[in-house]
Structures are given as C-alpha cells and as structure tokens.
Amino acid sequence: MNKVALYCRPGFEKECAAEIVERATRLEIYGFPRVKDNCGYVIFECYQHDDAERLIRELPFNSLIFARQMLVVGDLLKDLPVDDRVTPIVGMIQGAIEKAGELRVEAPDTNEGKELLKFCRKLTVPLRQRMRADGVLLNRENHHRPVVHVFFIASGCCYVGYSYSNNNSPFFMGIPRLRFPADAPSRSTLKLEEAFHVFIPADEWEERLASGMRAVDLGACPGGWTYQLVQRSMMVEAVDNGTMAQSLMDTGQVTHRREDGFRFTPTHATTNYWVVCDMVEKPWRIAMLMADWLINGWCREAIFNLKLPMKKRYEEVSHCLEEIDKRLKENGINAQIQAKQLYHDREEVTVHVRRIWSAIPGRRDERERR
Ligand SMILES: C[S@@+](CC[C@H](N)C(=O)[O-])C[C@H]1O[C@@H](n2cnc3c(N)ncnc32)[C@H](O)[C@@H]1O
C-alpha cells in the first residue's frame, strides 16, 4: 500500500494537497497528489512503497490543517462483483493489518457520498463478520488498535486501508456529530463546541474550561460562542456593536461591551483566561490582534477563526501561523499553536493558541510562578 488518503471539506482539495506535499517533503517522503475538485478527498501517492506507512506514523495528524482523516490505502478497487463485494475488500486488507479494533465503511462528504452511505451501512455488518472470522478485526471493538477503513468513492468502487488510533481522527468520516442546542442563539455555536472537542483533550476540560473562569468574546453577537462559555459557567465580556440574545444577558454571566474589538482592553486583564474571536475581518489583522493579546498577557488561551480569501488560502493561513509563532517567540512566550478546518467551518479555519510560559521576567506567567 503506497498511498495516503486524506478526507477534507469539498472545495478544499488543493489546500489539502499542498499541505500534504509540503509536510511529506519535510520528512523526505516524496510523491504526488491526485486532486479532483469538490470530491472531498486527496490521494497522495508515494514513490517509495513503505513511505505511506511511514507518513501516517510520523506526521502528527493533529498538525494538519485541512485533513479530516489520514489513512494508508492500496490501489482503487473497481467494479466490485454485485454478488460478493466482501471477498475482494477483505483480500485487499489481509496481510496489511491484523487484529484491528474497528471497521468504518465511509464515503466522501459530498451529495454523492450521502447516497453511498446508505449502502455503506448495509455492507458494514457482513464485512465486519468476515473480517472477524479472518483475524483482520478483533472480536470486540478496541480503540487502542488500528482502524480499518473502506472508503467508497462511487458505487462498486472503493479504497481499502487503515489508520492508527493514536494518530487519526476518532470520528466516523472525520466528522464529530454534535447536536445543535435548541436554546443557542446561532448555529455557529457548534464551531466553538467542535473546537473544544478537537483542541482540548477531554481529560483537561475540567481544568481548562472550568466554571468561574473569565472569558472575552470578540465579535460576539448574537451570542453562539458566548453561549458555549456561559454553559461552562464562565463570566464573559461580549464585545460587539450588535444585539446579544436576551437569554444570555438574563444569566447574569455576560457583560455586553458595545466597542470595537480591535481597540477593546479586557476589564480583568490579569485574570482573564480565554479570548475567543469570530469577527469577520482580514485573517492577517485577526492573527496580529490575537498575538497582541497573548503577548500582553490578556489571556492564557485563544480560539479564533481566520476567514479565508478566495485564492492562496493555504499560503495565507501558513503565513499567519508563522507570524504568530515568530512574534510570540520574539517576546519570550512559549505557546502551542494548532489550526484545523473544522467540520462546522466553511470558508475559514479555526486556530487555537495556548500560552505555556513566558521566558521574559515581568510577564504575567513569571509573576504567577513566583
Ligand atoms: C460571524 S458574526 C459572530 C457570530 C458569533 N460568534 C455567534 O456565534 O453568534 C461576526 C460578528 O463580528 C462583529 N464584528 C465585526 N467587526 C467587529 C469589530 N471590529 N468589533 C467588534 N465586533 C465586530 C459583527 O458585528 C458580527 O456580529
């Protein structure tokens, strides 16, 4: 198996391809991407046979911005016989992996893919039975073992492969299923909820999304993101000239500041923990604003959207992330920076920055350690 399949948002195949080529090259893994517009995935074909396996082991999945899932696959299986699709699929994976912990029969996140999913669901049961009988799958689900993926791109036509459970997306098709809370003021509430799931490990939620924390929401109206913070019992300064949902104001946890988010300074600058920002602005301006907040010590963690331009989207995001990194380093701030195009993101990506400690005496973290 010498190919890596990457699932992505339809329309972002070029960005996903540019990213995998650059990241693989840094690991001295060479190959070429097969890209078809709006198909919802990219196939990166490695020149060396073992390199696909090395790529999915050595390239941290969390560091990829545009990929929703990353797996090794073999050649495309075409014209599967209608009376027995199971045998060729199992034959493809046998020898490549054994005692896998889970089977996912998937399709791209496109309209055609949605049609294929009905069939995928039907095929899952007989496929799982045969894989268990043949030792490809363990008899019980095990989330510490590799995952077998069967990825249908058309009727009777699929890739078969695997991903590693410590370096993949834990979600079917790489998409977390979140339920829209009926009392949230806007659908974009799901963006911030998904960001928490993707960027903050579940066992750290109690500490990093704790009740009583202070948070600032820049570009808050009508309040979908503020809703997420309020749900976690935080005290929020919501900055926006628009109208906030009354239900949020009634909680007593929100102070509405009708100000310009680029000029606003937090009232509780030294104790504020989170800043979140969903203002529609040039990505570069948002990136620099967030760097300022982190450098000023006005937050410990930031989650923000970079709304992407129509062209050179990968270059634009990379440039913004590099500049944030550079400015934080120049100011002696150690930080963890992650970016992902989330399922609920459209023409945008979401960035998370966590300040770890500051090397320059006098900065907030230094004071806290004394
Ligand atoms: C995409 S909406 C935010 C939606 C919000 N996150 C939610 O979940 O309901 C963008 C908001 O940013 C606000 N905005 C844009 N530029 C701003 C600025 N310079 N200062 C404050 N708010 C701004 C707009 O008024 C708008 O309400």
What small molecules does the structure contain? S-adenosylmethionine
Number of strands: 14
How much of the sequence lies in strands comes to 15-25%
CA radius of gyration is 22 Å
Secondary-structure element pattern, one letter each: EHEEHEHEHEEHHEHEHEEHEHEEH
Identify the overall geometry.
Answer: elongated
In terms of per-residue confidence, which ranges show pLDDT below 50 for 5 or more consecutive residues? none
- Look at the helices and sheets and give the structural class: alpha/beta
Q: What can be said about the biggest beta sheet?
A: 7 strands, mixed
Strand order of the largest sheet: 2-3-1-4-7-6-5
Number of helices: 11
Instruction: Give the overall pLDDT as a whole number.
Output: 95
Distance between the termini: 54 Å
Helix proportion? 25-40%
GO cellular component, one term: cytoplasm
Family: Belongs to the class I-like SAM-binding methyltransferase superfamily. RNA methyltransferase RlmE family. RlmM subfamily.
Subunit structure: Monomer.
Domain Ribosomal RNA large subunit methyltransferase M THUMP-like: 84-164
